[in-house]
């Protein structure tokens, strides 16, 4: 069983981030909780310290700012052996109508910060010969999605980036994993502003965390795991369709819903 000792979790104030925090605390890991909403982080930290007897530190941060990963590494004292890059959000609009500033922030959080955080913490994991980095992607990664063009492309980047780093880090004993959930009952769709982007049956955050931990517990770990059998089958099936037909189908599904 994968046994973390001190874990950094971004986007920890709600949804998947809070669920990751609860699951890792239950395994005995101390935590560093990162998000913008300090009050939620403090409440979660107090809960987990009381229930599990671990130490939970709170670090409010805006990951859309340049150098977010380096700033986190500088602000956190001591060793981190597990990084959960969970922070991210999506937007839903035709690109021609989208707010350019919102798209810029979406790329900054979903792509730039994830890369910077991975780069900031990976050297110490490689040096220690252990630990894990988990990057939360999405089933949106496996096909372009009209009306969510930036989000789908960002998550596709996360999967591709993670697979490459998995190969680089594997000889050093470091686990690197991309987790691709489908529609999950979190605040994601509140931020997006519509459930039109939800395709398939909703999962609960705990379902995604179980998928992640099962993958981390394996002796020989894959680079990518999709949460949910139906989601995994759908992700596999995207390989069988011509790219343009697949994109049109994804667009129709989003519009119809």
If you had to describe this structure to a student in words, what would you say it looks like?
The structure is a single chain. The protein has about 260 residues and is α/β, with parallel strands linked by helices. It has a single domain (about 5-255), classed as Rossmann fold, CATH 3.40.50. The protein is built from nine helices and seven strands; from the N terminus they run βαβαβαβαβαβααβαα. It has helices spanning about 15-25, 40-50, 70-75, 100-130, 150-170, 190, 205-215, 230-235, 245-255, and strands at about 5-10, 30-35, 55-60, 80-85, 130-135, 175-180, 225. A seven-stranded parallel sheet has the order 3-2-1-4-5-6-7, sandwiched between helices. Helix 3 packs across helix 4. The model has no long low-confidence stretch (mean pLDDT about 90). Pfam families: adh_short. Keywords: Oxidoreductase. InterPro entries: NAD(P)-bd_dom_sf (IPR036291), SDR_fam (IPR002347). It comes from Protaetiibacter mangrovi. Belongs to the short-chain dehydrogenases/reductases (SDR) family.
């Amino acid at each position: 069983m994968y046994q973390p000792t001190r874990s950094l979790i971004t986007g920890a104030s709600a949804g998947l981030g809070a669920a990751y925090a609860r699951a890792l605390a239950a395994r005995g890991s101390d935590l560093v909780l990162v998000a913008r909403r300090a009050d939620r982080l403090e409440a979660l930290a107090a809960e987990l310290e009381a229930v599990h007897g671990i130490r939970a530190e709170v670090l409010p941060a805006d990951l859309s700012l340049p150098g977010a990963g380096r700033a986190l590494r500088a602000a956190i004292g001591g060793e981190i052996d597990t990084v959960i890059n969970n922070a991210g959000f999506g937007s839903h609009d035709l690109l021609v109508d989208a707010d350019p500033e919102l798209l810029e922030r979406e790329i900054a959080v979903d792509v730039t910060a994830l890369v910077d955080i991975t780069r900031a913490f990976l050297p110490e994991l490689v040096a220690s010969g252990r630990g894990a980095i988990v990057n939360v992607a999405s089933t949106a990664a496996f096909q372009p999605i009209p009306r969510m063009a930036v989000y789908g492309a960002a998550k596709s980047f996360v999967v591709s980036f993670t697979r490459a780093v998995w190969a680089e880090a594997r000889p050093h004993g470091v686990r690197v994993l991309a987790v691709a959930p489908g529609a999950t009952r979190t605040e994601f769709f509140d931020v997006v502003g519509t459930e039109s982007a939800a395709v398939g049956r909703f999962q609960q955050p705990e379902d995604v965390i179980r998928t992640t931990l099962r993958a981390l517990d394996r002796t020989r770990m894959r680079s990518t795991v999709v949460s949910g059998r139906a989601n995994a089958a759908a992700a596999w099936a995207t390989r069988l369709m011509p790219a343009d037909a697949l994109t049109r189908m994804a667009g129709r599904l989003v519009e119809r819903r």
